[in-house]
Design goal:
The structure holds 2 protein chains of 2 kinds. Chain A has an 8-stranded mixed beta sheet, with helices on both faces. Chain A has 10 helices and 8 strands. Chain A is 37% helix and 19% strand. Chain B is an alpha/beta fold. The two termini of chain B are 24 Å apart. Classes of the chains: A alpha/beta, B alpha/beta. Chains A and B meet through helix 6 of A and helix 10 and helix 11 of B.
Chain lengths: 262, 393
């Protein structure tokens, strides 16, 4: 039975952030991608059967405030170190998708002491020569949603669902903050590659084999940079394995974390 | 009233059918579509047209900056302005403008404009813009800090022109130990500053501030929008304790004059439709990248779903909304007089060549406009304005 969340706001680093929390167990901090995390999704409920799942919205995204200090992904990385201190979180399983995977990587090269494991799901953050990521900023909403999924029925469902003005405004804010953080250099920090070897955490890298935003070639690149990492490719899957292949994703992550428990 | 000849210098030789297969002619159209032999001829033809405008008595000629597009071939407008400094004698030369947020070093513009101002003995008008949205895709500049960079670059350029150097500048985006440009501007304290815009309250509030009183230009807009934003400028000026002069307001609009209304309509139709539907065509994601407009402004745009780049517009739509002035000299003169009396602008910047309009038609358009439209309108907005260009002392 999937777990329901509670929604709270936390005041951290002079920024009011929205946080969804649910379940019990070791804490699992999920860092969302460019489209925010204003809703509790099925994969969160399933993970919450084994973990205390914590899903904040990054400063500048969704229902969280945009603080005046927000200029870069590095700022968000330091913000989350404050966040972990404030919530007194230890032994955390850090999971990030896309932009959130980039943030997770930037946190881990700064301070990995609060964490037990790291899971990167189609993360942004590095640039592989000759393999540019897609230009998400030139896609219409429809192109974006179609390109997010391998299974076009999921894209159709999402496109067919009515969007409220409120939801549109949230996505507008999300896109502005994404541009601010990731427009140039596009979706990467040229310095990150130099320091990923510092990540000593057991690391799982998950990629959909049909990712049209950040090509699957980025999977082996990340794996070669993070010492204790392994790569799991999910077949017939796009950029959002946790959404498109929820059961498989939850099982892969749970098994990975289970295997590293002392 | 004062009359300026505004030129975009488009790539008029564009293969329109071939270009139509691409998402936009800006940014994504391969530059194999550009033929340097044609380009050489076009640049020189356009310089001739602007030189002729000076001879015909236009008060100024205008050039501008666009990148990676056949829409306008002046990525470095200072080159064109430099050529015009030697080809023109009387006309002001307005660079409308340099796209400040795209710059890695704004002092290059402080220097370039000061050079032009010195060479022309004070005929330069300095335009500052943010660039259209497509430029942020073409140039890799971040649209989400475009406003910040615009203001910081502007402040730096103004200080470079007006304060004795060397001084240090510590900004968020730009830092210099030594700001001390040679030459200084010829016009004192600095060349007149014009701000072209598609209409924005933030821009207007900033431009009309009593310590700036910059000339506000409304570009390529329906006449209702021209009226709305110019009224807004006057209201905001009044709130700040002064009456905005006509010489603080300008309208940039394409125009075409022929012997009769019918002849003008027939001759202009394919070219003005090419301009709006082919050369300006781009998807909303290219025109308005995230952060280019503020969150609040963008919400308004999403609500109205309005866009100047929708495509499929006819000359009749354009005439009806007043985005294009077209007809016999008497007709166009009457249109301008009506709009001027209603709206109160002191500058009219007519784009008398657009898209594929050929040289001979451009030349005749310029002659008829200069000889038969302008003289009957000179008396309008005669009251000298506080934003009149400052002459060198």
């Amino acid at each position: 039975m999937a777990v329901e969340p509670c929604h709270t706001f936390e005041q951290i680093a002079a920024c009011r952030v929205s946080v969804l929390r649910g379940g019990a167990g070791e804490p699992l901090l999920f860092l969302h991608g460019a489209r925010g995390a204003s809703q509790w999704l099925p994969f969160m409920g399933l993970l919450a059967e084994n973990f205390e799942v914590i899903v904040p919205e990054h400063p500048g995204f969704g229902l969280s405030e945009t603080p005046p200090w927000l200029d870069s992904i590095g700022d968000i990385a330091y913000f989350y170190l404050d966040f972990l201190d404030a919530l007194k979180l230890k032994n955390v399983h850090l999971v990030g998708n896309s932009l959130g995977g980039w943030i997770a990587s930037e946190i881990a090269i700064r301070n990995q002491h609060p964490f037990r494991t790291l899971t990167l799901v189609a993360p942004a953050g590095i640039r592989v020569d000759g393999v540019p990521p897609a230009d998400i900023f030139l896609w219409s909403r429809e192109e974006l949603i179609r390109n997010l999924f391998y299974n076009q029925n999921m894209a159709e469902t999402m496109l067919g669902a009515p969007t409220s003005d409120e939801e549109q405004n949230l996505q507008l804010r999300n896109s502005i903050t994404t541009a601010k953080l990731a427009w140039q250099p596009r979706l990467n920090n040229p310095d990150l590659k130099k320091w990923l070897h510092r990540v000593q955490l057991p690391t799982l890298i998950v990629w959909g084999d049909s990712d049209r935003l950040i090509p699957p070639a980025y999977g082996p690149a990340f794996q070669s940079l993070i010492p204790d990492s392994r790569l799991e490719i999910i077949p017939q899957c796009g950029h959002l394995p946790h959404v498109e292949r929820t059961t498989e994703f939850v099982s892969v992550v749970t098994k990975f974390i289970g295997a590293v428990r002392p | 009233m004062k009359f300026f000849f505004f030129h975009l210098m488009p790539y008029a030789a564009l293969d329109l059918a071939g270009a139509a297969k691409f998402k936009s002619v800006s940014v994504l159209l391969p530059n194999s579509f550009y033929d340097p032999i044609q380009g050489h001829a076009l640049y020189n033809r356009y310089l001739d047209e602007l030189e002729y405008a000076d001879q015909l008595g236009f008060d100024g000629v205008c050039v501008n900056e666009h990148h990676q597009t056949p829409y306008g071939l002046m990525p470095t407008p200072g080159v064109t302005a430099g050529a015009l400094s030697q080809r023109t004698r009387h006309a002001k030369i307005a660079v409308l403008g340099r796209a400040l947020p795209l710059l890695n070093n704004p002092l290059t513009v402080a220097e370039e404009f000061a050079m032009l101002d010195n060479i022309t003995g004070g005929r330069l008008i300095a335009g500052f813009v943010r660039g259209i949205g497509a430029e942020y895709h073409a140039w890799g500049a971040n649209p989400a800090n475009s406003h910040e960079r615009f203001h910081e670059a502007h402040d730096l350029i103004l200080r470079a022109w007006t304060e004795t150097g060397p001084f240090a500048f510590e900004g968020k985006h730009y830092q210099f130990n030594y700001v001390n440009p040679w030459p200084r501007p010829y016009q004192q304290p600095h060349p007149p500053i014009w701000i072209p815009s598609q209409g924005s309250r933030e821009t207007i509030e900033w431009a009309c501030d009593p310590k700036r009183k910059y000339v506000y230009l409304q570009t390529f807009s329906p006449v209702a929008a021209v009226a709305k934003y110019m009224a807004m400028y006057k209201e905001e000026a009044a709130k700040r304790g002064y009456e905005a002069a006509p010489a603080q307001l300008g309208w940039a609009v394409p125009a075409y004059v022929a012997e009769t209304d019918e002849q003008a309509y027939q001759e202009a139709k394919p070219h003005i439709e090419n301009f709006f539907n082919r050369f300006l065509r781009m998807p909303p994601e290219m025109l308005l990248p995230p952060g280019y407009l503020s969150y609040e402004s963008m919400k308004g745009v999403m609500k109205s779903k309005a866009s100047i780049t929708g495509g499929g517009r006819t000359i009749d739509d354009l005439l009806k909304s007043g985005m294009f002035l077209c007809g016999s000299a008497a007709t166009v003169r009457q249109q301008i007089e009506n709009h001027q009396k209603q709206i109160g602008f002191g500058y009219l910047l007519t784009m008398l060549q657009f898209a594929t309009l050929p040289h001979e038609l451009t030349r005749r358009n310029s002659e008829l406009f200069a000889r038969e439209v302008i003289p009957g309108l000179r008396h309008l907005a005669e009251k000298p304005g506080s934003a009149e260009p400052v002459e060198a002392s």
